[in-house]
C-alpha cells in the first residue's frame, strides 16, 4: 500500500489562506513586542498562530491518499442483449444471407471468441433483457442502464465492459446515467451495435387479432397489417387459405416505406375448427422472405340467432326484411306488426304482443324497432325499459329503422332515448322526401366496415354501393351523439353539420345500436334479387350478436370484453344465467375460477347487476400472458361453463424496428471507449486486450473534514482565550 498526501485548494483560496496566515503572524509579533515581550506572552501568541495555521491548512483541503492494490486479476464483463427486439432479422451474413440479431449473438457465443481478452485477465459473460417467464408479472422490456449499474456495483477490479446490443432500451433510466459513473471511475465501455439503423428491403405481414370464433353462414372479417421497407410502391394481394386451398383474396397497394391496415372477408362452408393461413406474395427485392405468412385458428359453430322485428305497418322494407330473415338458416325470427286500428299481424312466426317480461325478451340477440313508438297501442314505457336493459346488460343488439310516420320521435324522454345514436330534427317529424332518387354514400369509416362489405374487395364493394338503387325518403337527422360512428350519409341532403347521416352505429352498455335512416334498402333487390339486401341484414345481425355468443353452455352464457386482452387490461366478465324453466336467475351466487397457464388459480365472486336480468359481472386484470381457463359456475345450481381466454403479454419489445446505435455511440464516447458494428468486433477486442490494468483502489482520508481537526481547533482557541484571561489581557 502506498501512502501520499494531496491538497486540492483553488488558487484564490490558496492566496487567501497565505495572506491570512502572514497577517496573523505579523499581528502576533506586533502584539508580543508592544506588551514588552517575554516567554509567557510568546506562548500565548504562539498558540494563536498555531490555531490560525491549522485553519489555513484546512482551507487547503489536505488529504491522506492510500493506494490499495487489487487482489484479483483485471476483469472484462461482456453484456449480451437477449431481449425480444433481437429477433429482428437485419444482420448480413458473410454468405450473403440475412440473420436475426439473436442468431449473430449465438454465433459469437463460443468461449474461444473471447480468448484475446482471457490472456490478460478474467472474462465474465452476462445476459440482460431476457423475457420474463410466462406466468411472471414482470414487464417485458430492456433496461440497459440497470445492467450497466449492476455490473459496476458487483464487479471487483473492473477493467472494461463490452456491450453487444441493438441499443433498444425501453425500461429504466437512460444508460448515460450509469455511463457517467463509469467515466468517473475511468472504466471504458466498448459497444458493438448488432443490427441496422435502417431496415432491410422487406415486406412484413404482421400478426393481427382475429376473432376467436364465427358462426356458420357468417362473413368473418380477417384483419391484416402490412409494413413496407421497400423504396417503391407495391401492388399485390393478400390471400387466405385453408387446408383445402385459397378461399379469399384481396388486392392491396402498399406505398413506399408505408403500411396498410385492412381486412378480407371469409365465409366458411362448414362448421368445425379451421387452421388458416394469410399469405402475402414475396417480392423479388425482399431481403427477408419468410415473414410474409401468418397462421391462426378459428372455430366455426352452428348456432341460431334469435331476432325480434317490431313494426307498425307492412311497408316494403318490413316485408323484405322479414323475408330475408326467414330464409336465413342461421336466424330464428319472430315478428310483431301492430297495424294501428287493426288486429296485430298473424301468421307464421308472428306474435300478438311485445314480450311481457324480461324472461321472454332475454332470448333475443337482436331487436328491430321499425316505425313504432311509445303509446298509441304500440310500445309501453316498461317495454322501452326492458329493451334498454336487454342491450345494456345482456349485450343484445338494437336496430332503429324509422319510417314516414315519425314514431321514433316518441322515444324522447323515455328509457330508449339514451340508446339513439342520432338527434332528430323537430322541424321535420315525418322525415324528408326528395322528388329525385338519392343514394347512400359511404364515409371513410364505412368503406372498410364489416356491415358495408357487399363484396370481398374494396374496389368491387365501392362500385356496388355506387350502383345500388337509390331511395326517396329519409329520417330528418340534425346531429349525431357522442360515441357514434357514421358509416354512410345522404348523397344530396345536408344539415348544419354536413351530409345527413343514414347509417350510424354506437355502443351502449354491453351491446350495440344501429340506426338506418332510410327505409329504401329493399330497392337494392332491383336486378339482383336478394343478393345485397339479404347480405347486408345478415351481416348486421351477426355483427350485433357476436359478443353474446363468445362462450355458452347449458342455461349459462359468458361474454368478455375486450375479446383479445393484453396483460394489464381490465377484462369485464358478464355471465347470464337461466334456471331450468328458462327464466333469468336473480338470486344465488355465481363465481368464476380463472386458471393461468402455470396452474395458478384465482376465484372471483360475480356480482348481480340490478334489474333482475340474470346478469352477473366481475372485473379481472390478467397479470400474466398465455391461455387462461375460465370456469363460471352457479353455486346455487348446476349451471357451469368452461372456456379459454387468450391473453397477449404486454411487451415493449418489438421485432422489426431499426437498431438504436446512437445511444451505444454516446455511451462509448462518454466513457472513452470505442463503438463499432458487428464487423468491428475483432478490432474492438484487440483494443480491450491492450488496455492497462485498472488503477489501484484509492482510499482518501479528508483531514480537513475529520472530527479530530475540529476538536484540535476548538482546543487551541480555548487554550488561547484561557491563557489571555489568566494573564490579565483584554
Notes on the protein architecture:
It is a single chain. By secondary structure, the chain is α+β, with helices and mostly antiparallel strands. It is 24% helix and 33% strand. The strands form nine sheets. It has an eight-stranded mixed β-sheet with strand order 18-17-19-20-28-27-26-23, sandwiched between helices. β27 and β28 (511-516) form a beta hairpin. The longest helix is centred in the first third of the chain and has 24 residues, at 11-34. The mean pLDDT is 85.
Outline the low-pLDDT stretches: none
* Structure summary, number of beta strands: 38
Please indicate the percent range of residues in DSSP E strands (runs of 2 or more). Answer: 25-35%
Question: What is the approximate shape?
Answer: elongated
Based on helices, strands and strand pairing, what is the structural class? alpha+beta
For the CA atoms, what is the radius of gyration?
Answer: 40 Å
Q: How would you write the strand order of the largest sheet?
A: 18-17-19-20-28-27-26-23
CA-CA gap between termini: 51 Å
The mean pLDDT is 85
User: Helix segment count?
Assistant: 15
Helix content: 10-25%
The largest sheet, given as strand count, sense and whether it forms a barrel, is:
8 strands, mixed
Amino acid at each position: 500500500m502506498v501512502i501520499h498526501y494531496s491538497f486540492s485548494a483553488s488558487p484564490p483560496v490558496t492566496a487567501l489562506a497565505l495572506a491570512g496566515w502572514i497577517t496573523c503572524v505579523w499581528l502576533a509579533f506586533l502584539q508580543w513586542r508592544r506588551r514588552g515581550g517575554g516567554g509567557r506572552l510568546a506562548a500565548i501568541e504562539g498558540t494563536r498562530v498555531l490555531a490560525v495555521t491549522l485553519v489555513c491548512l484546512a482551507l487547503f483541503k489536505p488529504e491522506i491518499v492510500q493506494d490499495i492494490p487489487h487482489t484479483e486479476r483485471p476483469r472484462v464483463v461482456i453484456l449480451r442483449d437477449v431481449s425480444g427486439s433481437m429477433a429482428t432479422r437485419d444482420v448480413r451474413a458473410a454468405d450473403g444471407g440475412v440473420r436475426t440479431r439473436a442468431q449473430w449473438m449465438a454465433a459469437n457465443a463460443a468461449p474461444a471468441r473471447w480468448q484475446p481478452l482471457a490472456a490478460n485477465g478474467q472474462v465474465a459473460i452476462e445476459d440482460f433483457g431476457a423475457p420474463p417467464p410466462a406466468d411472471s408479472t414482470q414487464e417485458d422490456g430492456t433496461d440497459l442502464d440497470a445492467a450497466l449499474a449492476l455490473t459496476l456495483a458487483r464487479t471487483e477490479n473492473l477493467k472494461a465492459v463490452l456491450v453487444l446490443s441493438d441499443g433498444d432500451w425501453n425500461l429504466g433510466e437512460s444508460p448515460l446515467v450509469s455511463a457517467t459513473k463509469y467515466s468517473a471511475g475511468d472504466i471504458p465501455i466498448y459497444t458493438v451495435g448488432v443490427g441496422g439503423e435502417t431496415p432491410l428491403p422487406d415486406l412484413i405481414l404482421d400478426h393481427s387479432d382475429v376473432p376467436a370464433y364465427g358462426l356458420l353462414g357468417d362473413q368473418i372479417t380477417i384483419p391484416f397489417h402490412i409494413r413496407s421497407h421497400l423504396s417503391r410502391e407495391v401492388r399485390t394481394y393478400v390471400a387466405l387459405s385453408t387446408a383445402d386451398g385459397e378461399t379469399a383474396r384481396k388486392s392491396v397497394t402498399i406505398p413506399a416505406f408505408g403500411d396498410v391496415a385492412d381486412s378480407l372477408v371469409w365465409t366458411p362452408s362448414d362448421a368445425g375448427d379451421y387452421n388458416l393461413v394469410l399469405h402475402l406474395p414475396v417480392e423479388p427485392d425482399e431481403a427477408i422472405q419468410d415473414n410474409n405468412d401468418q397462421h391462426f385458428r378459428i372455430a366455426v359453430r352452428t348456432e341460431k340467432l334469435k331476432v325480434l322485428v317490431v313494426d307498425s305497418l307492412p311497408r316494403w322494407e318490413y316485408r323484405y326484411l322479414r323475408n330475408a330473415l326467414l330464409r336465413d338458416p342461421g336466424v330464428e325470427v319472430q315478428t310483431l306488426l301492430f297495424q294501428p286500428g287493426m288486429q296485430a299481424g298473424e301468421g307464421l312466426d308472428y306474435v300478438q304482443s311485445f314480450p311481457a317480461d324480461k324472461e321472454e325478451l332475454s332470448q333475443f340477440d337482436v331487436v328491430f324497432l321499425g316505425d313504432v313508438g311509445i303509446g298509441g297501442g304500440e310500445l309501453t314505457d316498461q317495454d322501452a325499459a326492458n329493451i334498454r336493459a336487454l342491450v345494456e346488460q345482456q349485450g343484445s343488439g338494437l336496430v332503429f329503422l324509422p319510417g314516414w310516420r315519425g314514431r321514433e320521435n316518441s322515444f324522447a324522454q323515455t328509457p330508449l332515448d339514451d340508446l339513439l345514436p342520432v338527434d332528430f330534427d323537430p322541424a321535420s317529424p315525418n322525415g324528408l322526401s326528395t322528388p329525385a332518387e338519392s343514394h347512400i354514400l359511404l364515409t371513410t369509416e364505412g368503406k372498410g366496415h364489416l356491415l358495408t362489405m357487399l363484396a370481398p374487395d374494396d374496389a368491387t364493394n365501392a362500385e356496388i354501393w355506387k350502383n345500388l338503387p337509390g331511395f326517396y325518403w329519409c329520417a330528418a337527422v340534425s346531429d349525431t351523439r357522442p360515441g357514434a360512428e357514421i358509416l354512410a350519409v345522404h348523397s344530396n341532403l345536408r344539415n348544419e353539420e354536413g351530409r345527413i347521416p343514414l347509417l350510424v352505429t354506437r355502443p351502449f352498455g354491453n351491446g350495440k345500436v344501429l340506426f338506418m335512416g332510410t327505409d329504401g334498402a329493399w330497392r337494392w333487390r332491383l336486378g339482383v334479387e336478394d343478393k345485397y339486401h339479404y347480405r347486408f341484414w345478415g351481416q348486421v345481425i351477426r355483427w350485433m350478436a357476436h359478443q353474446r355468443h363468445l362462450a355458452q353452455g347449458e342455461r349459462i352464457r359468458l361474454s368478455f370484453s375486450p375479446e383479445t386482452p393484453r396483460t394489464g387490461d381490465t377484462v369485464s366478465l358478464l355471465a347470464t344465467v337461466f334456471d331450468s324453466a328458462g327464466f333469468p336467475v336473480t338470486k344465488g351466487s355465481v363465481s368464476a375460477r380463472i386458471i393461468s397457464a402455470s396452474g395458478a388459480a384465482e376465484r372471483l365472486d360475480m356480482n348481480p347487476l340490478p334489474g333482475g336480468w340474470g346478469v352477473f359481472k366481475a372485473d379481472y386484470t390478467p397479470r400474466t400472458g398465455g391461455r387462461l381457463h375460465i370456469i363460471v359456475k352457479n353455486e346455487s345450481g348446476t349451471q357451469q361453463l368452461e372456456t379459454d381466454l387468450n391473453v397477449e403479454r404486454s411487451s415493449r419489445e418489438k421485432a422489426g424496428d431499426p437498431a438504436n446505435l446512437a445511444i451505444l455511440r454516446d455511451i462509448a464516447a462518454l466513457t472513452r471507449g470505442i463503438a463499432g458494428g458487428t464487423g468491428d468486433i475483432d478490432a474492438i477486442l484487440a483494443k480491450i486486450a491492450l488496455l492497462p490494468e485498472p488503477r489501484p483502489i484509492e482510499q482518501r482520508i479528508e483531514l480537513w473534514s475529520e472530527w479530530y481537526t475540529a476538536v484540535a481547533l476548538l482546543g487551541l482557541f480555548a487554550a488561547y482565550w484561557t491563557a489571555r484571561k489568566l494573564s490579565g489581557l483584554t
